[in-house]
Write a structure and sequence with these properties.
About 30% of the residues lie in helices and about 20% in strands. The protein is built from eleven helices and 15 strands.
């Protein structure tokens, strides 16, 4: 005979488990679903300069109401592994506050350009506090032996690989299904990956730095008539030697460019090949002061914004045109 009180208690617990589990492991998180606005919103967050790496974190809000991240900003573990250098992690201190402020209640996936702390450090915190159902990257693994940094990303990637359907490796020509209103194409790296010309690399640069950068996940997002290019951390030499010769010219042309390699150095050849109307360089602190992007891209008529100067930089596209949403638009 069924114990009625016990049965009702079990049902109540099941209902609570179904409807009460938070997406974010935080209190007071918005529970409204992300709105289906019909617009594409791309926001490059400002990542502070903590002396290592320039940092990149881009929030992509799709027309159908999904939210993806392209890179997750800086997060450098302390030596004891119990905290973060400068007491800063971009996942906790930049991305989550932005999502909360926008009423975004879930993340649908992360596209990771490559395995350096100033790009994946934020994910190291997010993965333990936020539901991340999908990780997409190029699958690149440095063959010359792993530094602690590259090894840390391998371990993070393996966490997703162990979950069925949670990891996707993408290469040149692949199409990513982020939203029916968007055409998202992977421009590089190729399946066999890029091999950089070491005779042309910058002085004192190491293979474990420039090779992961060269094999960044570079994507092109088309929303109607508006095109965004997110080229990752490909450095100046590899932009000229590897990207331009291996990507069709029409695929490099864009309206909005997130400057490669944070825009610290800038290739006139790549600037001409992309010819963006708006260029966003994710560079704060000393990197913002060093940025060559305003001069090189500005010379071609592009409107240039550097996060360390202008703060958070957003673009809102309706598929026919776009508007800028810049935190400090008049800063110099």
């Amino acid at each position: 005979m069924i114990n009625r009180k016990r049965f009702l208690a079990v049902v109540a617990l099941a209902v609570a488990a179904t409807f009460s589990a938070p997406v974010f492991a935080e209190e007071n998180v918005p529970v409204d679903p992300n709105p289906r606005t019909g617009k594409l919103k791309l926001t490059c967050l400002e990542i502070p300069d903590y002396g290592r790496g320039a940092g990149l974190a881009v929030v992509i809000q799709t027309p159908g109401g999904k939210t993806f991240l392209y890179d997750t900003g800086s997060g450098y573990p302390t030596k004891d592994g119990k905290g973060w250098a400068g007491e800063y992690n971009a996942g906790r201190d930049a991305i989550l506050p932005f999502l909360k402020a926008k009423g975004i209640s879930s993340i649908d996936g992360v596209l990771m350009s490559h395995g350096h702390y100033d790009h994946f450090g934020g994910l190291m915190w997010l993965v333990d506090h936020v539901t991340i159902p999908k990780l997409i990257d190029s699958g690149y693994s440095f063959a010359g032996g792993h530094s602690s940094e590259l090894a840390a990303y391998e371990r993070l990637r393996d966490r997703f690989k162990k979950v069925s359907g949670a990891y996707l490796e993408a290469h040149s020509g692949d199409m990513l299904d982020l939203d029916p209103a968007l055409k998202v194409e992977v421009l590089y790296p190729p399946r066999e990956f890029f091999q950089a010309n070491t005779s042309r690399t910058q002085k004192n640069d190491t293979p474990e730095h420039f090779l992961p950068n060269a094999n960044s996940l570079g994507i092109r997002i088309t929303h109607g008539d508006v095109v965004f290019l997110l080229p990752g951390d490909v450095q100046v030499t590899e932009q000229v030697d590897l990207v331009i010769p291996n990507v069709a010219p029409e695929k490099l042309r864009c309206n909005i460019l997130v400057a490669p390699a944070h825009g610290i150095d800038a290739s006139p050849e790549f600037a001409k090949a992309t010819s963006p109307e708006v260029t966003i360089a994710s560079a704060s602190g000393r990197y913002a002061k060093w940025s060559a992007t305003p001069k090189v891209y500005g010379k071609l008529g592009s409107r240039v914004f550097v996060t360390g100067t202008h703060g958070r930089v957003g673009i809102v596209s309706d598929g026919k045109s776009y508007v800028l949403d810049v935190e400090r638009p008049n800063a110099k």
